[in-house]
Amino acid sequence: MPNSGTNTGVQDHRNLMDWSEAANDTQSNTTFLPIDMRFNDGHLLSIFGYSFLMVASTIGNVTVLVLLIRKRLKASSRIDAMLMHLAIADLLVTFLLMPLEIAWAYTVQWYGGDLLCRVMSFFRTFGLYLSGFILVCISLDRYYAILRPLNFSGIDRRGRVMLLTAWIMSVVCSAPQAYIFHVEAHPNATWYTQCVTYHSFGNSQTLEVLYSVSTVMFMYGLPLVIIIFCYASIYFEIYKKTKNTIS
Question: Domain residue spans in the chain?
Fold first, then answer.
């Protein structure tokens, strides 16, 4: 994070495994804390960024949700239901993740206690997982509709099962967050508490890296691969049929 001093390698101590950089101070005096453990320009930028995204996401997703609800009152469709779930997932991110990040950037340290740390750590990833998994549901639905049009029986039930699976998988994938994240007091500045993964993996940094990599893969990598496969298959199917028609 940028700062006005000469130290350019600032780290965020909310996620730092080694907290030994803080001065040995037991009083609540932030003068002795490193710049990244105090409110700085990086935190201010984070607040402005998340605030803008929160307003834009609220306007966009609430508008979409209202339009879909009005449409479903007249005639409901499977894809509309999936889009409603996607809008709800995005609003979970908007109203749970973003306010947390704004408040956390403002306070820098964690004041919410251990239970809230675990609960909010769960919801920090839940909405993101859910959005990705519902996008997978939509792509699979389009895949079956175009490449398997004759397999129409039970299509609505399949859509409901996919959505239910997306919600369940989001809970399962987010559950480790509630175990791994917890409140720790700084070993030197004992009044300074933070919601971190410190000590959750023992002394193995490799395990923490593996967990982070697996989180990214399940949250972004796997959904992206499935979505690309589905829409690439749809494209080639349409291209093949168009070519045969022209011939």
Answer: 37-246
Confidence of residue 39 (pLDDT cuts 50, 70, 90): confident
As a whole number of angstroms, the distance between CA 238 and CA 232 comes to: 10
Helix, strand, or coil (residue 210): helix
Count the neighbouring beta carbons within 10 Å of the beta carbon of residue 130.
25
Query: What b/e string do you get for 230-247 counting C-beta neighbours within 10 Å, with b at 16 or more?
Result: beeebeeeeeeeeeeeee
Burial per residue of 61-91, b for 16 or more beta-carbon CB atoms within 10 angstroms, e otherwise:
beebbeebeeeeeeeeebeebbbbbbbebbb
Q: Which CATH class is domain 37-246?
A: mainly alpha
Integer-rounded Cα radius of gyration of the chain: 23
The mean-pLDDT minimum among 27-36, 77-86, 202-211 falls in 27-36
Under 8 Å between Cβ of 230 and 143 = yes
Do the Cβ atoms of 46 and 213 come closer than 8 Å?
no
3-class DSSP state of 190: coil
